[in-house]
């Protein structure tokens, strides 16, 4: 059984004492077979595991040592599109400050947080919010969030940055600056891995001046029926790179080799996703992996997702000439970043219409399937990835685990 009413904030709903979640949060039957106890899943050591990459040698003066680190990053980007980064150069103290500040904001009374509420109806997506229903079923995700742009500094809207706690602004600003430097290092390695000049990929996504960096703090309250809900539904990130910090509560799952794999909680690590933007530029050589967030009934999970994105209209995204050949023609048509997001919205809408996702399906652990409207995108992408690109629709901000 499930309840029937929906609170405006998931936190309010979770703290109301309900035993049954509203039907709007219940996932389709085809997804339910793959949702298990996340704490038990995280303990499993058999099967594939998300790679952990040690970055201490990423800039080593010893060419052989440096190249070994670079090859490990390249291999993880090709095979997984996600990795745990350790020895990344961002101090434990700074990461702890970010965690403490973000949690302190969510520990504020709902009324205080509502002072920073976004207004999705008018397109104001920055601020405190909850996901709007975006399909014919009215499905919702078990999360609240706080979302805002952090870089470039001249594009920030400081009016929606929390004034409490007092360390939120300085900690978040410093963390964003450190992550921006890390992103440059990763772009460099990924460029070299494609046989390009080391600054090429960063230039293609806007460079130091125009790359957009946005922060989304995902707050996943305890859920009385976690086996029926998801914190974030299956999707790939539209970004170039996404960096995720979390409070060491498991929840991120990756769809790898036909199965959902749970990411371990690796101390002092930052999770990094390759996004659609890099997958497109690399002509599919680097993977933007399908992933989702699972909830639980025992612990609140909080994650800090930082999205590095190209400007929406200025840059045309398409496979770089060096990545395509007669034998490996371009897999993706030219689009601006905004057009890519619109295309994913179209495919998601088509998915809801074509497969009637509200009804029971027969795909087991596979994500729902739809047609794709662009033959050149079908290439080497596996079906479950190619046709299940679920993206932030309309006025909802980006998502990640």
TrEMBL record:
Q: Which GO terms describe its biological process?
A: flavonoid biosynthetic process; pigment biosynthetic process
| Fe2OG dioxygenase domain ranges (all copies) | 211-310
GO MF, one term, reads: L-ascorbic acid binding
Cofactor needs: L-ascorbate
Keywords, in A-Z order: Dioxygenase, Flavonoid biosynthesis, Iron, Metal-binding, Oxidoreductase, Vitamin C
Under InterPro entries, the record lists: DIOX_N, IPNS-like_FE2OG_OXY, IPNS-like_sf, Oxoglu/Fe-dep_dioxygenase_dom, Plant_2OG-oxidoreductases
Which family does this protein fall into? Belongs to the iron/ascorbate-dependent oxidoreductase family.
Q: What is this protein called?
A: Anthocyanidin synthase
Source organism (scientific name): Panax notoginseng (notoginseng)
